[in-house]
Amino acid sequence: MATIAEWVQGARPRTLPTALSPVVVGTGAAIGAGAVEPARAGLALVVALALVVGVNYANDYSDGVRGTDDDRVGPVRLVGARLARPAAVRNAALGCLALAALAGLALVSLSGQWWLLGVGALCIAGAWFYTGGRRPYGYAGLGEVAVFVFFGPVAVLGTALTQGGPPSGSTILASVGVGMLTSAVLVANNLRDIPTDEIAGKRTLAVVLGDARTRLLYATLALGPLALSAVAALRSWPMVLGLLAVPLAVGPVRRVLGGAAGRDLVGVLAATGVLLLGWSAATGVGLALAGLA
What is the DSSP string of 99-135? Predict the structure, then answer.
């Protein structure tokens, strides 16, 4: 029987910046548009957090029952390490996804953006079928694409829209940056797992690209949003605040390009999450100031 601490570890708290960041950026955009709604921002955060924890438990369950997690480096695997019954982890995943659906329904009802119900359904399906089902897309090298879309443009623009703020060009650019950095978190994770994923037959994008090209991909995704900040600042000067995150990028990029492997990449994953959250917070402030200036 897993302890509470093990359940918390199984939720992979290092990945929670991927939930917080798009809501921070989207709410910053709403503030800039003079349309911020705190209750709706709170619901958007519940949706994002529930989706991230839900996909982490779903991943733990699906990989665990397939045997993919039998020999892994990194965070605890509840099913793979035989700490919890597969059914319990599956139910935890489904419970989180159900919470995301309920919070999303409330958010859509308050905002009147009913078409977002379809988007929400796709997000929940994407969370489950990342490693679940007969043909999980995470085993076909599509995980980073889905993460970019769902936790970048969809989450950022959805947060802004449900608060009544129409997305500006800067907001759209920022949503791309959030998607890139969120994908970088997954790339760091999958770079670490290349040896075991190859053995288990899990063809992530990292496995397809190989070690060297995956490291270059990581650097591109981690540094790309900083370039976007510079470009956005040409149109709206407060967007230059995103460049405050430059120091946060130096360490993880240097370690990845320097050949960090195995457990060393666990720290890179955490540092990438900090970079994501730091860049998003600075960019969110920039979007708010851009609209108020």
Answer: HHHHHHHHHHHHHT-TTHHHHHHHHHHHHHHTT-SSS
